[in-house]
Description:
Structural class: alpha+beta
Amino acid sequence: xxxxxxxxxxxxxxxxxxxxxxxxxxxxxxxxxxxxxxxxxxxxxxxxxxxxxxxxxxxxxxxxxxxxxxxxxxxxxxxxxxxxxxxxxxxxxxxxxxxxxxxxxxxxxxxxxxxxxxxxxxxxxxxxxxxxxxxxxxxxxxxxxxxxxxxxxxxxxxxxxxxxxxxxxxxxxxxxxxxxxx
Length: 182
C-alpha cells in the first residue's frame, strides 16, 4: 500500500507542476504581445456626405442607401505602431423594437445595443502601420439594406495588435462615432 501512495503523490506532484507551467506559459503568451495602453492615439469617425442632420447635429442617412465614413487615427508620439488590425463595425446604438413596414421579413424586430447592423456592416484592415507623429485615414463604405431598423446607430472601432497569429485588443470604443438611419 505504501508504494501505491508514493506513486499517487508523485503523479499528483507531476500533474500540478505540469498544470502550473502550462498556466504560466499561457499567461505569458497572452500578455507578451500586448502593448501598453495608448494615450498617444487619437481615434475618431467622420461621416461623409450625410443626407440630413438630426436636431442634435448627428449625420443622417436613409435606409437602403450607401454611405461612407472615415476612421481617423492620429499618432501623437514618435512610436510607430506596426502589425495592427483595425476593425470598424456599424452597430445599433440602443435597445429597441421596430415594425418594418418597408421590409416585412420579419415585420417586427427587436434589436440590442452593440448588435451589428444587417448586411456587410464590418470592415477589417489588416497589417496597418501608423508611423509616429502622423495621421492614418481608412475609408469604409456601407450599403444599409432594407432589413435595417431606423434610429441612432454607432460605429465601434477596435485596434488589435497582431504578431505571429497571436494578438491582443488594446483599443475598443463602441461609440467612436454616432449616426442616424431613417
